[in-house]
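About this split. The held-out portion is used to measure sequence recovery: a designer receives only the structure tokens and must propose an amino acid at every position. Recovery is the fraction of positions where the proposal matches the reference. Here is one held-out target exactly as it appears in the evaluation file.
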């Protein structure tokens, strides 16, 4: 079993550290647990929750704290490694938010909403909240007034500037949904991003064009895990629009033929990918 997390919640105002309001106390615990659940869905291949967080200890004073321990939803399942990954991603994401990153890895909109509420209460009713993780995973994360101010400033700046499209060279992992040709004869791969399950459209060029044509001819590729390389076009910070793919790497080869075994080097009849696309467009 993974080690528990100790959540310490300090009240503010005349009532003192040990007397937060019921709404603030329960809301802080609830949003932290739902943050963990959201991260679990994002990092797991199945996008489900197999962990339930139970209160296994509580202390009333100096100040109030709770011990939250991960248990499997199915007693036959071991969730220790899964819980450790969830906790590590949660720590890294909360630290990244404090440092001004408004879209840490695996922090979906749902997770970001919970994180903002955790920090908002610190400025409106609570003095601070300390999340004590196992030292081997990351130690303690302090949610205090400076952290809350830094996060709100980062999100306010992002919101005031509006969407800022940009492009970068890189790769995205995901699971094949379908391969097809669009109305212009271009080979298109639609795949679900591993991080949050959103569907991404990749337009193939070069070597990726022949790879996608082979994938398009067989249903066996559905759900296969791949890494798509190329130019990633973003709508805004961390929000992918499309990918101009130059290569595709198959990460899960179970029961699949090797890519070299199925790609026909003469598929385009000796034409380059660009010339072949031009011919396809003329035919359409």
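Reference sequence for scoring:
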């Amino acid at each position: 079993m993974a080690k528990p997390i100790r959540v310490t919640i300090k009240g503010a105002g005349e009532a003192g550290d040990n007397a937060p309001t019921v709404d603030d106390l329960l809301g802080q615990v609830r949003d932290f647990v739902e943050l963990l659940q959201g991260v679990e869905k994002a990092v797991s291949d199945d996008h489900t929750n197999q962990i339930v967080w139970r209160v296994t200890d509580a202390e009333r004073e100096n100040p109030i704290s709770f011990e939250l321990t991960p248990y499997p939803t199915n007693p036959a399942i071991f969730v220790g490694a899964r819980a450790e990954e969830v906790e590590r991603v949660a720590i890294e994401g909360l630290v990244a938010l404090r440092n001004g990153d408004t879209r840490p890895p695996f922090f979906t909109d749902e997770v970001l909403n919970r994180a903002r509420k955790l920090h908002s209460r610190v400025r409106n009713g609570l003095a601070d909240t300390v999340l004590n993780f196992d030292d081997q995973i990351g130690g303690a994360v302090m949610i205090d007034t400076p952290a809350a101010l830094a996060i709100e400033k980062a999100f306010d700046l992002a919101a005031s500037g509006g969407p800022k499209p940009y492009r970068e060279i890189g790769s995205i992992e995901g699971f094949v949904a379908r391969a097809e040709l669009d109305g212009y004869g271009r080979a298109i791969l639609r795949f679900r991003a591993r991080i949050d399950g959103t569907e991404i459209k990749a337009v193939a060029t070069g070597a990726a064009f022949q790879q996608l044509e082979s994938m398009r001819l067989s249903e066996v590729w559905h759900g296969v895990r791949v890494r798509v390389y190329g130019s990633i076009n973003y709508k805004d910070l961390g929000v992918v629009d499309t990918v101009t793919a130059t290569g595709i790497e198959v990460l899960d080869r179970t029961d699949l033929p090797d890519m070299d075994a199925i790609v026909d080097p003469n598929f385009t009849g000796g034409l380059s990918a660009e010339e072949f696309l031009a011919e396809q467009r003329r035919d359409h």
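Annotator remark: DSSP finds seven helices and ten strands in the chain.
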